C-alpha cells in the first residue's frame, strides 16, 4: 500500500502516505545492567523505539506529530553487581514510566534523491529503583524514586527513498543530556552523557495484500559521563516487524509481530570502584505482538499502535517487559 509513501496495497487498501514516527530514543533511565555493560544497564537504545511501518521515514512533505507512552518493568539477578551513578548495587528492580512528545518536518525538495526530515523529541520520566547498595562497611537495601525531564533526542537528518514496493531509510539521532541526573542516586531521569545513533532501514509493502515488513539496524556510540568518568561501550541493535493490514471501517487494522536484538560490541571504560575485572558486555533480545489502527484522511493520517516486547534472552542487562503506546498524526 503506498500512496504518499505509507503502505498502499490496491484500491482496497488505498490510503495516504505513511506517517513516520521517526526515532526518538528517549532517555529511559540511568540504571540497571549487570557488571560492566552500559552504565546502569539501559542506555539510549530502547527496544521498540523504531521497529514498525509507522517508524519509517515520511515521504510526504509536511509535519508529523507523535506523542508516546512507555512502561518498563525489569530486574537483575540477585548476585549481579551493577555500576550505577557512581555506586555499586545488586538485586536491582526497575519500574519506569515515560511520556515522550515530539515531531518531524519533511521538506518538499529532495535531498540526495530522498525526502528529508528533521525533528526533536522531549520526555518526562518517572522511575523507581530498588536495590542493595555495596559499601565498605556492608550492604544495605535502598529504594530511590524520582520524576523529571528526561534527555532530549535530536534528529538532524532522516532520509527516505522509495522504489516501487521498497523503501530505504537512513537517519542520525543525537541524544543530548538535558535530563535530571544526580551522582549517588539510583533513579535518574537522565543519563548525563551524549550519544549518537546512526540507523539504516529497509521496508517492504505488498500493494496487493497489505503485507508489510520492516527492519532497522543501528549502532549507538556513547560519550563519557563526566560525573562518574564512566563511558559505556558501543551497542549494535536490530529492530524489525511483520504486519498485516486489514480493512476495518474507514481505516485499517494492523496485526503483527515486532522483535529486537541488541549486542554490545565494545567494552565499557570503567575507572570506578575496581570490582569489575571481567570484560562484561550487554546482550538482549525479545519478540512480541503489535496491534494498531490506521485512519487515512486525505493528505492527513492518524495512527495508533500498541506494542508489547518481553525480553526473552538477556545477558548483563535487566530482564523485563516493554509496553509502548504510540499515536502519530501526519498533516
| Termini Cα gap | 19 Å
Query: Domains counted in the coordinates: how many?
Result: 1
CATH architecture: Beta Barrel
**Biggest β-sheet, characterized?**
12 strands, antiparallel, barrel
CATH fold label: Lipocalin
CATH superfamily label: Autotransporter beta-domain
Content-based structural category: mainly beta
Report helical residue fraction: under 10%
Spatial strand sequence of the major β-sheet: 1-3-4-6-7-8-9-12-13-14-15-16
Low-confidence stretches: 1-38
- Total E-strand runs: 16
Number of helices: 0
What is the residue-averaged pLDDT?
83
According to CATH, what is the class?
Mainly Beta
Oligomer: single chain
Protein name: MetA-pathway of phenol degradation
Describe the structure.
There is one protein chain. A hairpin with a 2-residue loop joins strand 14 and strand 15. The chain is 0% helix and 58% strand. The two termini are 19 Å apart. It contains no helices and 16 strands. With 331 residues, it is an all-beta fold. It has one domain: Lipocalin, CATH 2.40.128. It is elongated and about 65 Å long. Strands 1-3-4-6-7-8-9-12-13-14-15-16 form a 12-stranded antiparallel β-barrel. Strands 10-11 form a two-stranded antiparallel ribbon.
Describe this structure in a few short sentences:
The protein has 331 residues and is an all-beta fold.
Offer a few descriptive terms.
two-stranded antiparallel sheet, Lipocalin, 331 residues, disordered N terminus, 12-stranded antiparallel β-barrel
Amino acid at each position: 500500500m503506498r500512496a504518499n509513501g505509507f503502505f498502499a496495497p490496491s484500491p482496497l487498501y488505498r490510503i495516504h502516505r505513511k506517517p513516520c514516527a521517526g526515532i526518538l530514543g528517549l532517555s529511559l533511565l540511568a540504571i540497571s545492567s549487570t557488571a560492566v555493560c552500559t552504565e546502569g544497564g539501559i542506555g539510549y537504545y530502547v527496544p521498540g523505539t523504531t521497529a514498525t511501518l509507522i517508524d519509517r521515514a515520511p515521504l510526504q512533505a509536511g509535519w508529523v506529530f507523535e506523542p508516546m507512552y512507555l512502561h518498563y518493568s525489569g530486574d537483575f539477578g540477585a548476585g549481579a553487581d551493577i555500576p550505577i551513578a557512581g555506586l555499586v548495587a545488586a538485586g536491582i528492580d526497575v519500574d519506569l514510566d515515560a511520556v515522550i512528545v515530539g515531531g518531524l518536518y519533511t521538506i518538499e525538495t529532495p535531498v540526495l534523491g530522498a525526502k528529508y526530515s528533521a525533528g526533536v523529541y522531549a520526555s518526562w520520566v518517572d522511575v523507581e529503583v530498588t536495590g542493595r547498595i555495596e559499601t565498605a562497611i556492608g550492604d544495605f537495601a535502598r529504594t530511590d524514586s524520582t520524576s523529571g525531564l528526561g534527555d532530549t533526542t535530536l534528529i538532524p537528518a532522516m532520509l527516505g527513498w522509495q522504489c516501487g514496493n521498497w523503501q530505504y531509510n537512513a537517519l542520525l539521532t543525537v541524544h543530548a543530556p538535558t535530563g535530571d541526573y544526580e551522582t549517588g542516586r539510583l533513579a535518574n531521569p537522565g543519563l548525563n552523557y551524549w550519544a549518537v545513533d546512526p540507523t539504516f532501514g529497509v521496508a517492504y509493502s505488498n500493494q496487493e495484500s497489505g503485507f508489510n515488513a520492516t527492519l532497522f539496524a543501528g549502532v549507538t556510540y556513547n560519550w563519557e559521563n563526566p560525573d562518574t568518568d564512566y563511558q559505556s561501550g558501543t551497542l549494535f541493535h536490530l529492530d524489525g516487524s511483520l504486519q498485516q493490514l486489514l480493512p476495518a471501517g474507514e481505516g485499517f487494522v494492523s496485526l503483527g509481530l515486532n522483535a529486537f536484538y541488541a549486542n554490545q560490541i565494545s567494552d565499557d571504560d570503567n575507572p570506578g570502584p575496581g570490582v569489575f575485572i571481567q570484560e562484561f558486555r550487554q546482550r538482549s533480545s525479545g519478540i512480541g505482538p503489535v496491534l494498531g489502527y490506521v485512519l487515512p484522511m486525505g493528505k492527513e493520517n492518524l495512527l495508533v499502535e500498541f506494542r508489547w516486547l518481553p525480553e526473552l534472552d538477556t545477558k548483563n542487562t535487566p530482564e523485563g517487559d516493554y509496553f509502548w503506546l504510540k499515536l502519530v498524526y501526519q498533516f
